[in-house]
Amino acid sequence: MPTYLYECEKCGRFEEFQNMSEEPLNECPECKSEVKRIIGSPGIIFKGSNFYVNQEQKSAAKSKSKNEKIS
Question: In whole angstroms, what is the distance from residue 71 CA to residue 68 CA?
Answer without folding.
Answer: 5
